Amino acid sequence: MHPTETFQLQITFLPQALVSIDAVKDDVKNWLLGTGEEAFVEGAIDDLYLDLPYEAEAPEQYEQLGGDNLPLLVYKYDREHLLQIKTKLEEDFKGLISCEMSAMLTETWMEGWKESFKPIRTPRFYIYPPWLSDNLPQDLIPICIEPGMAFGTGQHATTMLCVKALEELETRGIQPDTLLDVGTGTGILAIAAQKLGYKTVTATDIDPDSIIAAGDNARVNGTPLILEQGTLPSRGAPFQVVMANIIFYVLRRIVGDLATQTAPGGFLILSGVLADEARAMEELANPCGLILEHEDVQSDWVCQIYRKV
Length: 309
Description:
Layout: E1 5-13, H1 21-34, E2 40-42, H2 58-64, E3 72-76, H3 79-92, E4 97-105, H4 106-111, E5 120-121, E6 125-128, E7 141-144, H5 157-171, E8 178-182, H6 188-195, E9 200-205, H7 208-221, E10 226-229, E11 239-245, H8 248-261, E12 262-274, H9 278-285, E13 290-298, E14 301-308
Parallel strand pairs: 6-7, 8-9, 8-11, 9-10, 11-12
Antiparallel strand pairs: 1-3, 1-4, 2-3, 5-6, 12-14, 13-14
Helix pairs in contact: 5-6
């Protein structure tokens, strides 16, 4: 079950004479991404109500909503973890930002995104939220996902590409026994692997909220997972399949470690890579004994399947 309270960290950007707010915001975003905090949002300014014309272009809407003055918002169940983020941000961006923490009921927070989470069909799976569990298709494998604070509901192109990559291996007749999902988020990919017949599935994430969400979703789906907080697991390596749906900024630093976790002859599935980053990712992967076998693109995002030689 999700904790009853959710904590919010609001990061507001202070006007500066020598550096633009936009530049500071980019630095803070990269700082958050670099520490594994992917689930932040660019929020609206309090008490700002605008009736935006439908035909307004995205940049125009962004400016009308406040533009660079929009704060960044980070949500966590773990107050102490969020407090650590706040302390480090204030140290690294002293005088450039102000941070404020607040609490709200988790139920209130979760109601805000329910309308945007719709069921998804793939050739093998039907991914749906628990409040839309009626009339499930009989010809597809059901996966019930409630994200909570974690990233990965199947809505994002990178998650869909990874699901398709698992389906691609199955289509080839490849039936490995062991899989590692690095940066598991909601656990959706690990759960999909378990439902495809993988005997032992390990999932890791540096975010404690993701471990909670993945554990909850695994129980709902009846798919036992070995869950560990961190990047790499403490046991089980090497794995026949390793998956990592993480941004290129992080992948380029850990691809060697991921290769080490992959058994010879096994597969490493990487996503979270933009199309214009794909060749750079391949150049980093090749020296690690990884040969690109398959690449899929969706909405400018790439998923790559490498074989470990």
